[in-house]
Amino acid sequence: MKDNRESADCCRELSEEYGLKEVHEANLKMLKEIDRICRKYGIRYGLDAGTLIGAVRHQGFIPWDDDADVAFTRENYEKFARVVRKELPAGMKFLEPSQLRGGEGFYDFTPRILYMNSRTHEDGPEMEYYEGRLNHLWVDLFIMDEQPECRIKAAWIKGLHTLIYGLAMGHRYKLDYSRYGALGKAAVAVLAGVGNKIPMRYIRRMQYSLAVRYHRGKSRFFYYSNYQPDFLYVTVERSWVEETVDLLFEDTVLMAPKGWEQVLNEVYEDYKTLPPKEKRVPSHSSTKIKVTG
Questions:
Q1: 114 and 100 in contact (C-beta within 8 Å)?
Q2: Separation between Cα atoms, residue 143 and residue 21, nearest integer Å
Q3: What is the DSSP annotation of 158-223?
Q4: Which residue, 37, 63, 167, 198, is the most exposed by fewest CB within 10 angstroms?
Q5: At what angle do helices 49-57 and 260-267 cross, to 10 degrees?
Q6: Beta bridge partners of 69
Q7: Residue 231 or 71, more confident
Q8: Cα–Cα dist 119/90, whole Å
């Protein structure tokens, strides 16, 4: 226990070094609220992505990470969504993708808990397009759905998710082609052009119908149906994620998938090794994050 406390203290000192002490405090408040609500209603969640790495490697936040991520199986997410609005304290809000621009805007398919007393980007046309809802610290809520055990069917499902995401991009504020090669740019332009002619509510319906298509309680595998396409490759086994364990996180304990090591090995090549120093930078904001409460 002493070693864990010393590691957590070291993590907090590094958070200050990277200028993220208040950011981590705000993210921790949101994580604690998610945890409180889930324990109250018997809902299971698991720390995910960089937040799970932080729990394992730092017993808290990765010192240079400026967001937080959790994941639910579909059943647990739907239980959470039914109760979260009445449970969240003042200053936090639950945002579903369907709430952007009256249901006709798209950023991604990820629900979030927002920390309203914060600002992560400069004001401008993009933030105005999203009605200021994306200009806050948040916790991403990822959803795991059953994946067909047949590899061909699984690849087909994930391919369809990628196409649907491309259609939805037609409802974004703007398209960023810088990350694509020539073929990718052409594909995104065509899909987004077609998607722009389809009401976003229909595209969301397609995404949801595809995500729950194989919910029969029989598959050994899950996938993250609302990840961005470049992370749709991730497949986890049911036994890794259906049960949870408590991991030390900062000054509390939070839930993590029972098979956290297998999950991290699946998602990352080497989660135990620190990245080069030049890559230890916050990655989710365009300005200095401001926390006002």
A1: no
A2: 28
A3: HHHHHHHHHHHGGGSS----TTS-HHHHHHHHHHHHHHTTS-HHHHHHHHHHHHTTT-SS--SEEE
A4: 198
A5: 120
A6: 140
A7: 71
A8: 17
Tokens of 113: 């808990």
User: Measured in whole angstroms, how far is the alpha carbon of residue 101 from the centre of its chain?
Assistant: 21
Whether the Cβ atoms of residue 255 and residue 80 lie closer than 8 Å to each other: no
Task: Give per-residue pLDDT as tens, 169-201.
Answer: 999 999 988 888 889 899 999 999 999 999 999
- C-alpha to C-alpha distance for 130 and 151, rounded to whole angstroms: 38
pLDDT tens by residue, 139-157: 999 999 999 999 999 999 9
Whole-number CA gyration radius for the chain? 19
Residue 92 has φ and ψ, to the nearest 5°, of: -130, 145
Contacts of 228 (CB under 8 A, 6+ apart): 108, 165
C-alpha–C-alpha distance, residues 220 and 242, integer Å: 11
